[in-house]
Design goal:
- The protein is of the alpha/beta class.
- The protein is elongated, with a radius of gyration of 27 Å.
- It contains 19 helices and eleven strands.
- The two termini are 36 Å apart.
- α5 (111-128) packs across α7.
- The protein has a four-stranded parallel sheet, with helices on both faces. The protein has a three-stranded parallel sheet with strand order 7-11-10, with helices on one face. It has a two-stranded antiparallel ribbon with strand order 1-4.
Length: 462
């Protein structure tokens, strides 16, 4: 399994080499080289921010299409709570659930129902592990991946529980195998996702060796099909919903924390805000906190790039939908979910940002970076294809860039060269240099000028 698998990829034909993505990527995983963006596989956490900001739609998410259900004899749909928030005037989730069955799925298992089980398990874990407080939610795969590569000191504070989608997949699979008697390979567990990070989780999960999710479909792909099937459901749909207020609330910021029945929590959304909170947590700026809920997308899962509705409108719709629901409808004892909730493998630090293979090499290279940063203009303009001057300096030390990639350094170099050439011309006129020495210096200047002009021409094309 590829631990650096990622679902966000680039369509080079659409990319125009602008720098919108490099300025917004939270892990500085993108560079513009040769007029095209490049995504560093080790740095990317699949938050989807580059998809959100790319004006040319060159960043895209890989996910399964609806016809993926044909690969299996029996399929189960796992609708995320955020799916319900995409529809206007929805007052009964059973309309959506029955429409999914009409669409071609044999069964439906709500991720919101599994979310209530995770909430129950979280309350129990907090009460018995006070030494690990504050605990950080592991429901958002992008946040877990971010902590894994950038905040290793916070790994012990990660809540060692599977996200609701994995719990739902395991329970849905168990139910399908008992109901049909089919072998595992003939059953398809299909998650309907609001974001690309869940696609990555299914392919390369953290906290468990293998995910039971077989395919991940985008809400934006399922949405137009569902609309017509929802009309065919009728006014009195079959009652198949199994989640209450707690489960549905997981679709928006604060919903997970709200299911813990405590006021000692912090909830943040948007990847930039998440990073600020993690930095403050690492600096131990928060006290008396039990739980930290973090969502990479603004507004929570309703703000995922694979949704269709405005996230703030979606949050209001979820709030209205849950108004007449019971607090919770799924419980650990009834579902016998204990075996599926807890992690079965640890999340370990991945030092992808290290500059060297050893501590001494990293320190030596860090000194090189600092010297280079002092030479660079410090404008963080992005013209070099890196998001900041420091990022360019690190690329230079890694051998992935040159000082001349900075247009300001290149202009200074050309200016110095022109001054030296002028001095040489004056010396030649006054006869201060010999013919051989003059020719040698002239040849060197021409070679340097050709290289710099070629670089300027390349930057002009970009």
């Amino acid at each position: 399994m590829d631990k650096f698998y990622h679902s966000v990829h680039l369509d080079e034909d659409l990319c125009r080499g602008c720098i919108n993505c490099i300025k917004r990527c939270p892990t500085q995983a993108i560079r513009v080289r040769g007029g095209k963006a490049r995504i560093n596989k080790k740095f990317c956490i699949d938050c989807g921010e580059c998809i959100r900001v790319c004006p040319y739609h060159a960043k895209q998410a890989a996910y399964d299409k609806l016809d993926a259900i044909r690969r299996y004899e029996y399929t189960v749909a796992l609708p995320a709570p955020s799916l319900y928030s995409q529809f206007n005037n929805l007052d009964d989730v059973n309309i959506v659930l029955n429409a999914l069955r009409l669409m071609g799925f044999d069964d439906v298992f709500e991720v919101g129902a599994a979310a209530e089980l995770v909430s129950e398990a979280t309350r129990e874990y907090i009460s018995t592990h006070e030494e690990d407080l504050p605990l950080i939610s592991t429901a958002c795969p992008s946040v877990v991946r971010l902590i894994r590569v950038r905040f290793p000191n916070l790994i012990p504070h990660l809540l060692p529980l599977n996200p609701p989608v994995e719990v739902a997949a395991s329970l849905a699979l168990q139910r399908a195998m008992e109901k049909t008697g089919l072998p595992r390979e003939k059953i398809g567990i299909c998650f309907i996702s609001p974001c690309p990070s869940k696609v990555t989780y299914a392919k390369a999960p953290l906290g468990t060796e293998k995910s039971e999710i077989d395919c991940v479909m985008a809400i934006k792909d399922i949405y137009p099909h569902l609309l017509s099937y929802m009309k065919a459901v009728g006014e009195e749909p079959e009652e198949i919903g199994t989640c209450g207020k707690i489960g549905v609330s997981w679709g928006r910021t604060g919903g997970e924390a709200g299911g813990l029945f405590t006021e000692s929590y912090l909830a943040a959304d948007g990847i930039e805000n998440v990073i600020r909170v993690l930095e403050d947590l690492e600096d131990q700026k928060f006290s008396q906190l039990q739980f930290v809920e973090l969502n990479a997308c603004s507004g929570g899962c309703v703000g995922g790039v694979l949704t269709v509705e405005n996230p703030y409108v979606s949050a209001v719709k979820l709030k209205r939908l849950r108004k007449y629901m019971p607090v919770a409808r799924s419980h650990m004892e009834e579902e016998k979910a204990e075996q599926f909730v807890h992690w079965t493998s640890d999340v370990v630090y991945e030092p992808v940002f290290s500059l060297g293979a050893t501590m001494m090499e990293s320190l030596a290279r860090l000194n090189q970076v600092e010297r280079l940063v002092r030479k660079l203009p410090g404008l963080d303009c992005g013209s070099c294809g890196a998001p900041t001057c420091k990022a360019l300096a690190e690329d230079i030390v890694r051998g992935e860039a040159r000082e001349e990639d900075c247009v300001y350094q290149l202009k200074d170099s050309l200016h110095k060269l022109s001054v030296e050439a002028s001095t040489l011309a004056e010396d030649m006129a006054e006869g201060k240099r010999g013919e051989k020495e003059t020719l040698r210096l002239l040849q060197r200047y021409i070679q340097k000028l050709s290289a710099d002009m070629a670089k300027l021409d390349e930057d002009g094309k970009e």
